[in-house]
Design goal:
mainly alpha; 5 helices
Amino acid sequence: PEDPKVPAVAKVAGFWQALQMQVRYMPAGLHDRVYACVSHLPQYIAFHLNDMQDDLHVEGEREALRRFLRLSHSPAGLWRGIFEANKDFIESD
Protein backbone atom coordinates (compact mmCIF):
# COMPACT_ATOMS: atom_id res chain seq x y z
CA PRO A 1 0.00 0.00 0.00
CA GLU A 2 0.96 3.61 -0.33
CA ASP A 3 3.00 4.83 2.61
CA PRO A 4 0.86 7.30 4.60
CA LYS A 5 4.11 8.88 5.79
CA VAL A 6 4.97 10.13 2.29
CA PRO A 7 4.14 13.87 2.40
CA ALA A 8 1.98 13.93 -0.75
CA VAL A 9 -0.02 10.87 0.39
CA ALA A 10 -0.46 12.30 3.88
CA LYS A 11 -1.63 15.63 2.43
CA VAL A 12 -4.29 14.02 0.24
CA ALA A 13 -5.38 11.71 3.07
CA GLY A 14 -5.65 14.72 5.38
CA PHE A 15 -7.89 16.49 2.87
CA TRP A 16 -10.34 13.58 2.76
CA GLN A 17 -10.21 13.05 6.51
CA ALA A 18 -11.04 16.74 7.03
CA LEU A 19 -14.24 16.02 5.07
CA GLN A 20 -15.04 13.20 7.52
CA MET A 21 -14.04 10.51 5.00
CA GLN A 22 -12.38 7.27 6.00
CA VAL A 23 -9.14 6.73 4.08
CA ARG A 24 -8.05 3.24 3.07
CA TYR A 25 -4.76 2.38 1.41
CA MET A 26 -4.27 -0.27 -1.24
CA PRO A 27 -1.40 -1.41 -3.45
CA ALA A 28 -1.28 0.26 -6.87
CA GLY A 29 -1.86 -3.05 -8.70
CA LEU A 30 -5.02 -3.76 -6.73
CA HIS A 31 -6.24 -0.21 -7.38
CA ASP A 32 -5.73 -0.72 -11.11
CA ARG A 33 -7.66 -4.02 -11.13
CA VAL A 34 -10.54 -2.62 -9.06
CA TYR A 35 -10.95 0.56 -11.12
CA ALA A 36 -10.63 -1.31 -14.38
CA CYS A 37 -13.78 -3.20 -13.35
CA VAL A 38 -15.86 -0.42 -11.81
CA SER A 39 -14.83 2.53 -13.97
CA HIS A 40 -12.79 1.75 -17.04
CA LEU A 41 -14.72 -1.28 -18.32
CA PRO A 42 -18.16 0.43 -18.15
CA GLN A 43 -16.65 3.45 -19.93
CA TYR A 44 -15.20 1.18 -22.62
CA ILE A 45 -18.56 -0.54 -23.11
CA ALA A 46 -20.41 2.79 -23.29
CA PHE A 47 -18.12 4.07 -26.05
CA HIS A 48 -18.79 0.95 -28.13
CA LEU A 49 -22.52 0.79 -27.42
CA ASN A 50 -22.95 4.43 -28.38
CA ASP A 51 -21.91 3.55 -31.93
CA MET A 52 -24.46 0.73 -32.01
CA GLN A 53 -27.44 2.34 -30.26
CA ASP A 54 -29.55 2.66 -33.41
CA ASP A 55 -29.26 -1.11 -33.89
CA LEU A 56 -30.19 -1.94 -30.30
CA HIS A 57 -33.76 -2.92 -29.61
CA VAL A 58 -34.42 -1.85 -26.04
CA GLU A 59 -38.13 -1.17 -25.97
CA GLY A 60 -39.12 0.38 -22.67
CA GLU A 61 -35.52 0.80 -21.58
CA ARG A 62 -34.53 3.83 -23.67
CA GLU A 63 -34.09 6.07 -20.61
CA ALA A 64 -31.80 3.58 -18.86
CA LEU A 65 -29.73 3.23 -22.03
CA ARG A 66 -29.53 7.01 -22.43
CA ARG A 67 -28.30 7.41 -18.84
CA PHE A 68 -25.67 4.71 -19.31
CA LEU A 69 -24.52 6.14 -22.63
CA ARG A 70 -23.86 9.52 -21.04
CA LEU A 71 -20.47 7.98 -20.26
CA SER A 72 -19.72 7.95 -23.98
CA HIS A 73 -19.75 11.76 -24.03
CA SER A 74 -16.52 11.93 -22.04
CA PRO A 75 -13.41 13.09 -23.93
CA ALA A 76 -12.29 10.12 -26.04
CA GLY A 77 -8.66 11.28 -26.04
CA LEU A 78 -8.49 11.17 -22.27
CA TRP A 79 -10.00 7.70 -22.15
CA ARG A 80 -7.81 6.38 -24.97
CA GLY A 81 -4.79 6.92 -22.72
CA ILE A 82 -6.53 5.35 -19.72
CA PHE A 83 -7.55 2.31 -21.77
CA GLU A 84 -4.02 1.90 -23.13
CA ALA A 85 -2.44 2.19 -19.68
CA ASN A 86 -4.91 -0.33 -18.24
CA LYS A 87 -5.38 -2.69 -21.18
CA ASP A 88 -4.12 -5.69 -19.21
CA PHE A 89 -6.98 -5.17 -16.74
CA ILE A 90 -9.68 -4.35 -19.30
CA GLU A 91 -9.08 -7.01 -21.93
CA SER A 92 -9.34 -10.70 -21.17
CA ASP A 93 -7.51 -13.57 -22.82
